[in-house]
């Protein structure tokens, strides 16, 4: 087989391995062919998938890079990184200690199924098939959580309590309002799905609840030992998580110091904008106003959705001036599922797929606790010009192997989302200076993540230390700070991706402007950044610098 043929085969293998290992994720990202399946959570299945991915990475690395050009060269590099990154949590058996309301298999199944749509008879049959496997999936969670207790790889007490609360809330909903029955309402499989939920799925969740409330909760880690370093081999696991999520060689100590420096810089921006908006440059006074002024809070869920839709519409209208290629897929804005919302982040995005547009879901739970100035920034991050533009553009790159059109790499995707928040300011999309505080608040929030994630998992911070740092250095509301810290505890390293990626895109833009001068075209730059789909940051740098060189060498440069 030729080197090009080998790359193509490895690309197909990667999509098959990862989609088979997690069909829920495949469904969320619109990968066809997996909507009838559930993940096999057995230890043997996960370890086998991890070993296959590590073998795939080794085979890709064995292909000489100098024998490849263009997309094939990029595909090789993406495969090496992505296969190793996806393998790490499988071979490290993260499932044994990831019991949380914010990440892990319970949160995953409830969120995925809540947003399922069934537009065709085939999708109805697939959903029924998936439902027949949910009991085994939930039983698998029970078995793996018990295995974690036996091995000393236990979750945090807070995470277990959150999961117990979430499962209880699910079981407390009337059967007719079950979030797994809702997608099948009015279809030919509704009665069969309802029977499965009543006779099979809910009893499995009840058994899981009993295990979580008993031996798992009794063995769980206290708040003082929230970080990975308190688990066997936790330091090594965290190092692998940092490399996977940042796609760089930066150490936890380097990222921690970077976060501290950024927090200090952002205080100055807060002071400058605070003087204009509130007549005060005192950081603490500004934050107190943003958090506690009732006039800055919503009064209804409908207003939250309306503001988010208006922000996305403004951004869509402005895209042609800032992007050469604008994808065709629509982005719809909807309120978050009511069962999912109480323990969820303030917004989330699901990419377009066959039969559905891209969907940005806003959390409207308890609207009077939610600040108005955050939701425009969130809309630009999750919707347009953020994740929706990024994912929809990638799906239209038909020259690329299928896995690259669906791929999610946190440093690239979340870096782009954070970049989009500042780009929206350049595009004139914020309603006024008050809403620009949302942009600064989100920047401070992501800078704090660098400090807090590494603090928890590398430096041994307690949960309360992490909460206190975020309260002192951001405008995030106290309830959201608690939610965020618990998310970082449950998902080690992921929070580092946002600012790491944004800073790389910023640096590449500066390089392009310095090299090209008056020939710099922001539309072409954005197309170059998004033109390869999701890639590790080193690959992004190589490809954008290649584009800069091509632009500089054109006649007239």
Helix and strand arrangement:
Elements: H1 3-21, H2 23-28, H3 43-62, H4 70-91, H5 105-114, H6 121-151, H7 157-172, H8 190-219, H9 234-246, H10 252-277, H11 283-292, H12 301-318, E1 331-335, E2 347-350, E3 358-362, H13 372-382, H14 387-395, H15 402-406, H16 410-426, H17 433-457, H18 463-473, H19 478-490, H20 497-516, H21 522-530, H22 537-552
Parallel strand pairs: 1-3
Antiparallel strand pairs: 2-3
Task: From the structure above, extract its key features.
single chain, 557 residues, mainly alpha, 2 domains, 64% helix
Written overview of the protein:
- Helices cover 64% and strands 3% of the residues.
- The protein is globular and about 70 Å long.
- It folds into two domains: 3-223, no CATH class; 242-501, no CATH class.
- A hairpin with a 7-residue loop joins strand 2 (347-350) and strand 3.
- It is built from 22 helices and three strands.
- The chain is mainly α and 557 residues long.
- Helix 16 (410-426) packs antiparallel against helix 17 (433-457) and helix 20 runs parallel beside helix 22 (537-552).
- It has a three-stranded mixed β-sheet, with helices on one face.
- The model has no long low-confidence stretch (mean pLDDT 95).
């Amino acid at each position: 087989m030729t080197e090009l043929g080998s790359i193509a085969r490895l690309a197909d293998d990667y999509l098959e391995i990862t989609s088979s290992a997690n069909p829920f994720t495949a469904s969320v990202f619109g990968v066809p062919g997996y909507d009838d399946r559930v993940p096999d959570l057995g230890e043997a299945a996960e370890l086998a998938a991890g070993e296959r991915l590590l073998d795939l990475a080794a085979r890709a690395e064995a292909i000489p890079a100098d024998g490849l050009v263009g997309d094939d060269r990029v595909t090789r590099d993406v495969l090496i990184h992505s296969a190793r990154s996806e393998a790490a949590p499988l071979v490290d058996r993260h499932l044994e200690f990831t019991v949380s309301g914010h990440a892990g298999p319970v949160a995953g199944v409830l969120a995925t199924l809540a947003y399922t749509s069934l537009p065709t008879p085939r999708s109805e049959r697939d959903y029924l098939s998936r439902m027949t496997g949910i009991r085994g999936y939930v039983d698998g969670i029970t078995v793996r959580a018990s295995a974690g207790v036996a091995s000393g790889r236990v979750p945090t007490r807070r995470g277990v309590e959150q999961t117990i609360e979430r499962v209880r809330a699910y079981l407390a909903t009337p059967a007719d309002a079950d979030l797994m029955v809702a997608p099948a309402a009015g279809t030919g499989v509704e009665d069969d799905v309802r029977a499965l939920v009543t006779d099979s799925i809910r009893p499995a969740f009840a058994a899981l609840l009993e295990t979580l409330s008993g031996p798992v909760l009794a063995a769980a880690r206290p708040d003082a030992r929230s970080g990975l370093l308190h688990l066997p081999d936790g330091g090594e696991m965290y190092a692998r998580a940092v490399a996977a999520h940042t796609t760089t060689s930066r150490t936890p100590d380097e990222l921690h110091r970077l976060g501290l420096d950024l927090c200090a810089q952002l205080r100055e921006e807060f002071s400058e904008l605070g003087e204009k908006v509130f007549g005060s440059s005192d950081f603490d006074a500004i934050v107190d106003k943003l958090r506690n002024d009732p006039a800055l809070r919503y009064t209804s869920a409908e207003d939250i959705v309306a503001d988010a839709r208006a922000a996305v519409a403004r951004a869509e209208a402005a895209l042609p001036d800032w992007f050469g290629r604008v994808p065709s897929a629509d982005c719809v804005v909807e309120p978050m599922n009511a069962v999912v919302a109480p323990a969820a982040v303030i917004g989330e995005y699901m990419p377009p797929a066959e039969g559905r547009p891209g969907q940005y879901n806003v959390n409207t739970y308890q609207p009077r606790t939610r600040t108005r100035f955050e939701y425009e920034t969130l809309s630009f991050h999750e919707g347009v010009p953020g994740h929706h533009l990024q994912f929809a553009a990638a799906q239209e790159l038909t020259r690329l192997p299928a896995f690259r059109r669906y791929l999610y790499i946190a440093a690239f995707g979340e870096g782009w989302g954070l970049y989009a928040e500042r780009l929206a300011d350049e595009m004139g999309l914020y309603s006024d200076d008050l809403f620009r505080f949302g942009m600064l608040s989100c920047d401070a929030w992501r800078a704090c993540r660098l400090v807090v994630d590494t603090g928890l998992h590398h430096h041994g911070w307690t949960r309360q230390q992490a909460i206190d740092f975020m309260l002192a250095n951001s405008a995030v509301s106290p309830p959201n700070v608690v939610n965020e810290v618990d998310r970082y505890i449950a998902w080690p390293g992921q929070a580092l991706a946002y600012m790491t990626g944004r800073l790389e895109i910023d640096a590449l833009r500066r390089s392009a402007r310095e090299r090209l001068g008056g020939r710099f075209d922001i539309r072409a730059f954005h197309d170059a950044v998004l033109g390869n789909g999701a890639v590790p940051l080193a690959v992004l740098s190589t490809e954008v610098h290649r584009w800069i060189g091509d632009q500089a060498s054109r006649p007239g440069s």
